[in-house]
Design brief:
alpha/beta, 1 helix, 4 strands, 23% helix, 17% strand
Length: 77
Amino acid sequence: MTTYVHNMNVLLACINSYCQWAGVKINMGKTEETGYDYKRQCPFDLSILQLGNGKPKIVMLWDPVKYSGSVSQSLVI
């Protein structure tokens, strides 16, 4: 969990570096990110997020999701 969108990108870069080192491929079809600012009562703009050469799907907190992995990242303030 992070408190800034920039920090989410830093974490995604770390995940990408590890995956390249380990020879693991990330299934971008199952990769989702979410972020919400509770102080301002609005979702964060996560359009800048980048994971390797792809962009994760952005989901809202109220959207139903199917959890099928072991890595998750949320942005909450």
